[in-house]
Amino acid sequence: MTPPAFHGVQWTSALLLAALGAGTVRARRRVRAIPVLPATPPGSAGLPRAAGWRLLTARGVEADAATFLAACAHAEREGLRVLDLLPGDLAAERLLGLLRLVDPAGYREDRLGEGRGAGYAVLVAEEVLARAGLEQDGAEPGGGPRPGGPRPEPAELISLVRRLKEYAAGATGLAVAPGLSAGRPAEPTGQARVAEMRAQGLPPGALAAAQLGGLALLAGVAARQGRWGAAAAGLYWLQPYLALGGPGSALRPADLAGATAARPVRSLRAAAVTAAASARTADRAEGEDAARAAAYRAELAAGTDRFLEPRRQDCPWCGSTRLTVRLRVPDLLQGKPGRFTLERCGDCGHVFQNPRLTPEGLDFYYRDFYDGRGGEGAGTVFGRLGAAYRARAEMLRPHARVSGPDSWLDVGTGHGHFCNAARAVWPRTRFDGLDMGDGVRAAERRGWVEAGFQGQFPEFADKLAGRYEVVSMYHYLEHTRDPLAELDTAAAVLAPGGLLAIELPDPESRMARLLGPAWLPWFQPQHQHLIPAANLREALADRGFTVLAEEHGPAHQGNDFVGAVALTATRLAPDPRRPWAPPATPRQRAAAQAVRAAALPLFAGAAALDALRTVAARRTDGGNAYRMLARRTGAGERR
Fold first, then answer.
1. Do residues 162 and 115 make contact, with C-beta atoms less than 8 angstroms apart?
2. Is residue 136 part of a domain?
3. What SS3 state is found at 30?
């Protein structure tokens, strides 16, 4: 029975009111957290050094000397190397969009956060431009644009800031420049909207569809849910003024009154033109992908059998021949052709790919996942794991010096995201990285690792022998062809008394049994070995390690149900634009769109279940992964 206090409440409208209210309060708080440059140049006592800085401005934007000097002074005072400047009269919807993406209060400290900008002007230290390989033709050293040089479009500046933050991870900021004007606000074209969204790393088509759906929902509740629906629609209508108007803000959009009065109409028009432009640019991108598709067709002409070795008859961990099939699945990650089998050892419980991929097969199935076509998406995912990276680094606190270890090698570092985040925990530690891919070189250029080693870890056993106080292998061993050889190498590379930190998927997780082939950590065809914790403890002891700590619940990755929905959707309707498949028919495209639309509410439900599952995992210490920290205390035995 509904309590009297809640009788007559229209819950859809109430939820919309709560969401819109929270968004309005958040925007108002964030806009007041953006620092403001002084309106006049600093006095001679605090005259900044203009040398070593470049001010890049978008087409049609002019910055005076006072703004440039004030920006230099602010950047030097705050220790910033990249500073995006927001005009004081920035358009209301553009400002609200920026505030949804970035919290100015924590922006600088978020070393993995993506760079965000308004697309008008950005102050950059020359050394950052040099490290990023971006010697700008459109700017003179020490200041404004080169006479006659081309000015970038707003989307280009937005993309530039996003990239530059990677090279100044903890030294990028935002500031309001009162002397900088956005000019007369004009309605951006659909093409410009799409370009700016993509420059921010956002999917324009999906966002436009979501905006159209949200507007339809607001119209529906306004028409059908009485005063509650009218209140929700009214709050949306007035949100620009409520968030950005009133005293106390240096940001005063020139179009605030018009943007508020015409918001529903403007939003509907913006979403429609963005959706149309996104569809057109997607067609062009598909045409540009023709060369990649041709290369895949040529490679697949010989079939996929050569990508698999002969099936082995015994367990690679203990040698037992008591093997049973755990599961058989296609490539659920990218939808590439092939079928893969995981088998389980009846004696030690080790789960492994059998037959396993050849080195050529690994190259084929990894391609366009972490780089190339899928590189940006993978980087975005890794960039959102900051809390997990910090937890991994914090695990060492009870077992390391207060000042932290002097040297740390992260094996399987990818693009160096962990090392970048871990610097906030251990600022005095030298982090090096090792990986097979080119990303480790990019990590070195960005300064996320001091030294990057590219190749197979065992190849570096002699070169790096005894060099490191800490070696980490986070979600790395499961990708390797011979995990025991990797442990041998770790023992060789560590100094006596050094620490080895490992994190792995747990094949004994309850969710592995519940979700079956849709359990994300099976991760076929990339994961070669899934190692039970008991097996790893024994292997470490054999190599002279003493286990200091083991965590299961804290290592849990809250993606079981979302991952299951994603893998199932990919299995039912693979990406119709994937270049390794024949061109999709109109029916296949329509089916893929229908599956994606049907999956949206399932993703929302899965996210809620994952949140509950994460709470349970933390309390019961039974997640889908585990971490182990061990100290090298003896020589041990080698295979």
1. yes
2. yes
3. helix
Q: Cis before residue 576, ω within 30 degrees of 0?
A: no
Helices 92-101 and 226-244: crossing angle, nearest 10°?
90
Contact between 250 and 36 (Cβ < 8 Å): yes
Quick one: which H or E segment has residue 594?
helix 586-620
Distance CA 600, CA 458 (A): 44
DSSP codes joined into one string, 147-202: TTPPPPPHHHHHHHHHHHHHHSTTSEEEEEETT----S--PPPHHHHHHHHHHTT-
404 dihedral zone (left: phi>0; alpha: psi -120 to 50; beta): left
Cβ neighbours around 78 below 10 Å, total = 13
Cβ(549)–Cβ(626) below 8 Å: no
Residue 158 CB burial class (10 angstroms; 0-12, 13-18, ≥19): buried
Q: Per the structure block, which two tokens stand in for 3?
A: 């309590």
Domain that holds residue 278: 12-288
Neighbours of 624 (CB within 10 A): 27
Q: How far is CA 129 from CA 77, 177, 516, 601, in A?
A: 20, 22, 48, 43
What is the spatial distance between Cα 333 and Cα 353, in angstroms, rounded to a whole number?
Answer: 16
Q: Are 231 and 221 in contact (CB under 8 A)?
A: no
* pTM of the predicted model as reported, rounded to 2 decimal places: 0.86
pLDDT on residue 564: 95
472 within some domain: no
- In sign, the C-alpha dihedral spanning 478, 482, 487, 492 is negative
Structure tokens at 148: 């006659």
* Alpha-carbon gap, residue 337 to 238, rounded angstroms: 52
pLDDT for the residue 491: 97
Residue pair 355/310 in contact by the 8 Å Cβ criterion: yes
What backbone torsions phi and psi does residue 35 show, to the nearest 5 degrees?
A: -65, 155
Distances (CA, A) of 18 to 15, 103, 263: 5, 20, 19
Residue 590: predicted pLDDT = 86
The tokens for 123 are: 């102050």
Nearest C-alpha neighbor of 119 from the set 101, 132, 137, 143: 101
Cβ-based neighbours of 598, under 8 Å, separated by 6 or more: none
Give the pLDDT confidence of 501-545 residue by residue, as tens digits: 999 999 999 999 999 999 999 999 999 999 999 999 999 999 999
Say if residues 216 and 122 touch (Cβ distance below 8 Å).
no
How many structural domains does the chain have?
A: 1
pLDDT at site 441: 93
Cα 160 → chain centroid: 17
Cβ atoms of residues 320 and 348 within 8 Å: yes
- Residue 336 lies inside a defined structural domain of this protein: no
Q: Which segments of the chain have a pLDDT < 50? A: 1-7, 44-47, 137-148, 638-639
Model pLDDT, residue 107: 94
* Tally of CB atoms within 10 A around 55: 22
What residue type is 394 in one-letter code? E
- 3-class DSSP state for residue 218? helix
Long-range contacts of 74-79 (CB under 8 A, 24+ apart): 74/35, 74/37, 74/175, 75/123, 75/125, 75/173, 76/48, 76/49, 78/35, 78/173, 79/171
Q: Report strand pairing: 339-345 vs 430-435.
A: unpaired
Question: Which residues share a beta bridge with 357?
Answer: 308
Q: In the prediction, which pLDDT does 283 show?
A: 56
Q: Is there a domain that residue 583 lies in?
A: no
Position 137 scores a pLDDT of 44
Closest CA to 116 of 129, 132, 130, 104: 104
